[in-house]
Amino acid sequence: MTSTISFDRVSDIYDATRGFPPGVSEQVTDFILNLVSPTAETKFYETGIGTGRIAVPIARRGYSYTGVDVSEKMLAELHQKLEGVSHRLTAIKGDATALPFDDNFFDVALTVHVFHLISAWKQALAEIRRVLKPDGILLYTHGQATSVSADEDVNSQRWEFTERWRAILDGYNQPLPRYGATEEEVLTELQA
Ligand SMILES: C[S@@+](CC[C@H](N)C(=O)[O-])C[C@H]1O[C@@H](n2cnc3c(N)ncnc32)[C@H](O)[C@@H]1O
Asked: What is residue 124's predicted lDDT score, i.e. its pLDDT?
């Protein structure tokens, strides 16, 4: 197990606090589908599928979708949304760094707000590359927490909060905890 942050504790408030405003989910789904032009055979995969914020709307459109997450409770929320819905979505408990899938299996892989949480993120990236077909598509979105764009100009309140939190922890000789990758690190690794 490589994740140091459990989402079990926030599974019941995740959608209320991280869900998309009305209408936005459809826009996100349309954007993704327009980008990858899927067919009925296209196989989607998501690392850190969570409550299915991205996955469920795509699965509702009939596409084959597989996801892995370490949090049983996040997965339980996802499965609840699919009750009574005809779908081709499989979401299983697992770790991003050891995927239980064959090489070159999926056509499209997605990661949304996950890589800032995974300490062994290079291994997680290698696993995605392994299970993704050579001509497959990776759609990558970073978590904001350690994004390089999290600066004073972009989000002054969060910047101020982080700086004060950092100062308090420094006072106790404890550095601000860092779990996974920054967006810049992942993009550099992907380019390499
Ligand atoms: C911020 S949530 C994002 C969920 C979903 N991708 C979304 O956009 O709504 C991060 C998710 O990654 C999962 N996660 C964290 N570390 C993981 C790991 N090593 N392997 C698989 N899932 C992980 C968490 O349990 C959580 O459900």
From this structure: 97
